[in-house]
Design goal:
About 60% of the residues lie in helices and about 0% in strands. The protein has 3 helices and no strands. Helix 1 runs parallel beside helix 3.
């Protein structure tokens, strides 16, 4: 995951978290974004480098922050 991907993950988390106060938790759009994002989270491998492990953990943390009701999708 390059710097741009990290930035996009953090920006997405910030955007979704900021919108949480103006949207109901059951918002269809929020649910769809979280579901789609969660289904596309990267998976881990025993062959991952330390950098890849760190990037995956960053992706999981951003997802968890933005979509707390969907953390069950984290592989």
């Amino acid at each position: 995951m390059n710097v741009l991907m990290k930035f996009a993950a953090v920006l997405s988390a910030t955007y979704l978290t900021g919108c949480a106060s103006t949207m109901t938790q059951d918002s269809a759009t929020t649910n769809e974004v979280c579901r789609a994002w969660g289904e596309r989270l990267p998976t881990r491998s025993t062959q991952d480098t330390q950098q890849t492990q760190d990037e995956i953990q960053t992706a999981y943390a951003a997802f968890s922050l933005a979509c707390p009701d969907w953390v069950h999708l984290i592989p």
